[in-house]
Amino acid sequence: MSLSAAAALWFLPFVLPICVYICYTDMKGMRIPNHAVVALFLVYLFVGVVALPLDVYFWRYLHLVVVLVAGIALNAGGAMGAGDAKFAAAAAPFIHIGDLRFLMALFAANLLAAFVAHRLAKRTPLRHLAPHWHSWEAGSKFPMGLALGGTLAIYLGLGLFYGA
Questions:
Q1: How many domains does the chain have?
Q2: What's the predicted TM-score (pTM) here?
Q3: What is residue 1's DSSP assignment?
Q4: Helix %, strand %, coil % for the chain, to 5?
Q5: Which residues of 59-72 are buried (b: 16+ CB within 10 A; e: fewer)?
Q6: Residue 32 is part of which domain span?
Q7: pLDDT given at position 115
Q8: Is the dihedral of CA 153, 26, 43, 57 positive or negative?
Q9: Residue 94 and residue 97: Cα distance in Å, rounded?
Q10: DSSP output for 117-130
Q11: Which pLDDT value is given to residue 57?
Q12: SS3 category, 51
């Protein structure tokens, strides 16, 4: 992985609780709250300046802009929720550009696993642990925050052990 283990070590303790919270809120209410996205951005703003060299730190804001523009376009086309687009944009600066192919494969695997796990839980007694979650009744819609938050958390966790 191109992500440094030191950067992953700095980011993971702050990002992991936010990712778990985003997974929870998206499954519960089919929404990714703005305050969670802002919190993720603030982690990068304050921790990133310590975790990364300054030139890298500033260039990664370009990742945020590119992903936000793509997310807005996907949202306008109905392919992605607005919260998902905002979360992906706030998560983008944490990703080393050299890991992009790996991240796409990780996201695809995590999306498939999250989708299957969610659909199975929806049809089993596990559903009774959280009977009022909106994601159970959302029809064909899927709480993408479950896959997005999980992917960022797993990426940083793998970076901790396998990072440069």
A1: 1
A2: 0.92
A3: -
A4: 80, 0, 20
A5: ebeebbeebbeebe
A6: 5-162
A7: 92
A8: positive
A9: 9
A10: HHHHHHTSGGGGGS
A11: 95
A12: helix
